[in-house]
Amino acid sequence: MLFRTGCLFLLFSAGAWAADWARFLGPNGDGTSPETGLIDRLPAGGPPVLLDLPVGTGYAAPAVQAGKLVLFHRLGDSEVIQVLDAVTGKPVWRHAYPTTYRDPYGYNNGPRAAPVLSTNRVYTFGADGKLTCLDLQTGAEVWQRDTAKEFEIPEAFFGVGTTPLLEGGRLLVMVGGQPNSGVVAFDPGTGKTLWQSVGETNWQGQPMWGRAGDLKVDWRRWEKQASYSSPVAATLGGQRWVFCLMRQGLVGLNPTNGAVRFSRWFRARVDESVNAANPVVSGDDVFFSAAYYRSGSVLLHPGSGTPGFAERWQGLGLEMHWSTPILVDGHLYGFSGRNEPDAMLRCIEFSTGKVKWERDERWTPHSAEQPPVFGRGSFILADGKLIAIGEGGLLGLFRPNADHCEEIDRWQVPSLHHPCWAGPVLSERRLYLRCEDRLVCLDLARH
């Protein structure tokens, strides 16, 4: 009986800190983790390195569930979905299919979107639009949709970069198709199309995107690309919503049928721009941000009367490029700036947009020496600490503090180099980081 009680205690204790990272931005979809028992400082030589593996090209963060690590990368002329043992790195299975994607701007040709895991399936969205479902245990293909061929999709700047979302028994994908398939819901089991949404008109039958400030906007002038943000689900006013930051702006949908409840124009007034950071929802407020040509940020809250939102504030306090800021105790922490030479680490007040503090993180990625700054980067929040990975492979620990920047420690991960644009992943106290050609796992457990 004592042995049984002890086992139950150990199981309960493990469950208190262990968490899977089965989708983009973790278990809550917001870059936060419930895990505890993490180190309070980085050792002088860095945390123990559990894995350091060569991988194919891409910017897709891995996913981890039940001891399995799912890696989505490109090897040669194939996009490869590969399952490894999350602790040893031992291969479990591998599934590959051909791809012809070539990045027109000289970035690598690998996938950008993170894998999404259910209890028994793996879902991936490749750089050239292949939406694939595999059996998680065996790697056998269940179904695949070639969205580039099946939907009328304008050519994207950097390939497909939006990660699908499992919500309410549907797989929601920002396909970016015309004329009415900006967002598409698929049956997760069969791949069948359930609904298509986001087109010419909104829920009131008016032009979808209305006005951009005082500029009258004709939706036909702009492609309905999905851009590089990913859908975010939330409950507001007792209703389930999905918010999608499309190329033209923010859309609020009913996830059951795709009905557009709200749309708001938000994008730079030049063609060479993207929206990439995810919306952040807190209570009934919705925040979204972009970095191109001083797009800045907006915070919306529900308006009165018909479905809609009113602007609480708009400003330049955060200009998020490809990472999503972390909300902690009423403040957002994020790496602001479009390019390396204008990167700033900032904390802003969520309710007002007021900048509480900032720190210069500007650097040149091709300098002869590794600069002592993060450049742009990504945060996750766990165990009361912000864990940062800079785009040059600099790992940092910060304490959330709205009064000043409180950096605890930093360490350059030796085998990582620019660009580290995949978000960090935390599971079972293990931190997974990747750059274009390496995957590293660090032990963050407090021993």
Walk me through this protein's architecture.
- The strands form nine sheets. A five-stranded mixed sheet has the order 1-29-30-31-32, with no helix packed on it.
- The chain has a single domain (17-443), classed as Quinoprotein alcohol dehydrogenase-like superfamily (Methanol Dehydrogenase, Chain A).
- The radius of gyration is 21 Å and the shape is globular.
- It is mainly beta and 447 residues long.
- The protein contains two helices and 35 strands.
- The longest helix has 16 residues, at 2-17.
- It has helices at 2-17, 147-150, and strands at 32-33, 49-54, 63-65, 68-75, 78-85, 91-98, 116-117, 121-125, 130-135, 141-146, 165-167, 170-173, 183-186, 193-197, 211-212, 215-216, 232-236, 239-245, 249-253, 260-265, 280-282, 285-290, 296-302, 309-315, 326-328, 331-336, 344-349, 355-360, 377-382, 385-390, 394-399, 406-412, 425-427, 430-434, 438-443.
- Residues 1-16 and 209-224 have low confidence and may be disordered.
- 4% of the residues lie in helices and 40% in strands.
